[in-house]
Here is the input.
Amino acid sequence: MVLAILGLFLTACGGDSSSSSDGGTKGDTESKATKSAAKSKKTGDNSVSIHESAEPDQINPIISSSANSTYIESNIFQTLLRINPATLELEGVLAAKRPDIQELDNGGMSLAFEIRPEATWDNGTPITADDYIFTIKAIKNPKVNAGSIRPYMESIERIEKDPANPKKFTVYLSEKYILAESNTGYYVYPEYVYDPNKIMRNFTIEQLNSGKSSSDKRLQEFATQFNDPKHAREVGGVIGSGPYEFKGWETGQRVVLERKKDWWGDKVDFPALNAKPDKIIYKIIKDRTTAVTSMKDEGLDVVRDINPNLFIDLQKNEGVKAHYNLHTPTFLAYYYIGLNRKSPKLADQKVRRAIAHLVDVEEIIDVTMHGLAERTIGPIHPSKSAYNRSITPIPFDVAKAKELLTEAGWTDSDGNGVVDKMIDGKKMDMKLSYKYNSDNDFRKEIGLLLKENAKRAGVDIEVEGLEWTVFLEDTKKRDYDMASLAWISAPTPDDLKQIWHSEADNPDGDNRVGFGSEESDKLIEEIRFTLDEGKRNEMYKKVQQMIHDDQPYIFMFTPKERIGIHNRFDNADTYVARPGYDEKQFVLKP
Here is the structure.
C-alpha cells in the first residue's frame, strides 16, 4: 500500500463506521440541534471540536501508528512539503518552494531545499538544515521505533548543508525513487528539544545506513529518551513548528491544542500556513452513537466516519441539516481482514481462501454500508490507474469453502460440527480468533456475520473485542488469527514496501500477516525505482495478482467518507486527502 509521507503517511485506521441502527433514543431528535429555527449555541466560539472514536496511540509522527494520531500531529508539526488537499499537487510548507531536483550520473537523485527565512522554533531560533538532518538520523536510528517509516527513507545516503546559508541543504538519494520528492519533504523536528545532548551528531547517515554503528550504546541512549512517553503525550515534550501548541491530553476525554500567539507562519501570506481557529479540541468518544447524539446537541463541530445507518438518518433530519453540512468525499482507504499466515491453522493458502469465501462482502456493502462503498480486490485504490481490474472479487460461497477445507485436509473426524486436522501429531480443531477494536461495532458486526457463515463450513470463530491500543499491540506481536483493520493512504504512487515486503515482517514493521517471497520482494523493490508510470503500473498489477493468489488479506471495500461539519464555519471544504477536511482553514462566520 502507499505511503506518501506527505499525505501524512499510511496508517492503521481505528475509526470507521459502526453498525448501530439509530442515533440513540427517540428523544434525541428533539435536542437543540433538531429545532431548525433555533440559533446555534456555538455562535462566537472560535474553537473547533472534532470527534475521535479512539485514543491516539501517541503524538510523535516518527513512531506513532494510528490515523487519529496523524491528524493531531499535523497541526503541531510541519513538513517541508505537503499535498495541497484541493489540487493534490505538492507545495512548500516549511520549504520556501518545491525542491530543485536533479538526476545524477550514478543513477541517484539530488533534491535541493530551502527552508523559509521566517521559519523559527517556539524559542525564537531559526529552523535549519541541522534540524532536518537530525530528523532523518532519528528515523534511521535502528533503536528508534520507526519501522513503519524507515523504508521510505532508506534511499537517502547523505545530506549536504549549504555553507553560506544554514537554511539550505541538498538531499542525495542512491536511486531514482518514485516518492523522492514527497518523502524527503518530511516533518522537521526541533533538535534542541528531541536531542538536547546532540547525540545523533556523532553519527553520519552513511554509518546509520550501513548498520556498522548499531551496537553503539549511544544509539540506544538516544532512542530510549526519544521513544519515551515524554515525547508522546506530555506538555513541554511535544513541540513542533506548526501553528498549534500541545496543551494537554486527558485519557479517554480529549486532546487540546491552542493557537500560538507569536507564530512564525503569520508573517507569510500563503494559504498552506493559514490557521484560523483559536483552539482545536479532539474529543474522544468511543461510542459512535453517543458521538452523533452529541453532534445533534451541537457538542461537536466535526464528526467523520459516521455510521452509515446514522448518516442516512441524519440526511433526513431537518434539524441537523439546519446546523450541519453533510459530506461524502472519496476516501483513499481499504477495509480488510488480515489472516496471520504464521498461525498453524492459516498456513495453507487453501484455508485462507476458504475463509475468504465465507465473508459476504456484497451484503456488507449493500446492507451495512448502505451502498456507501465500492468492492475492492487489493491494496491499490480503485481510482488509480495501477488498480488491477482483471482480478475477480472472491464470491461468497460456503460450498466452495467446504471444498477447499477438505482439500487442505480439514474434515470433521469426530462429528462435533467443527473440522479438524492432525498438525504436528496433535488433532487440532479449526477454531479461529477474530479480533477487532472494541469501540467499533461495525467491525464487530462483520465478525458476527463471518462467525455465522463459518459455522456452516465447520469453522468455529471467536469474535473478540479489544481496546484499540491493546488490539494494535496484538497485531504487532502477531497474537491473532484474524484481525479487522483498514489502511489509509495518499493520492501519490504506492510504495508497497511498508506492508508487503518481507523485510517489514518484524515486530517493528507493518507486514503483520507474513506475506512475501523472493519474487514479490523483487517486484516491490523495482516499483519503488521505476519512474515510467506505464511500466510501474504493470508491475503493480503483478504484485496485486500475487497478493490475491496468496490470500493474506480478505480485501472488502473502499468506503465513501461520511462527514458532518457545523455550518458556523466558512472555508470548511471536504477533500479526497485525509482526513477529508482541514480544520486549520475553518473561518468562523461573523
Remarks:
- Confidence is low (pLDDT under 50) at residues 1-12, 14-38.
- The first strand starts at residue 11 and ends at 12.
- DSSP finds 19 helices and 24 strands in the chain.
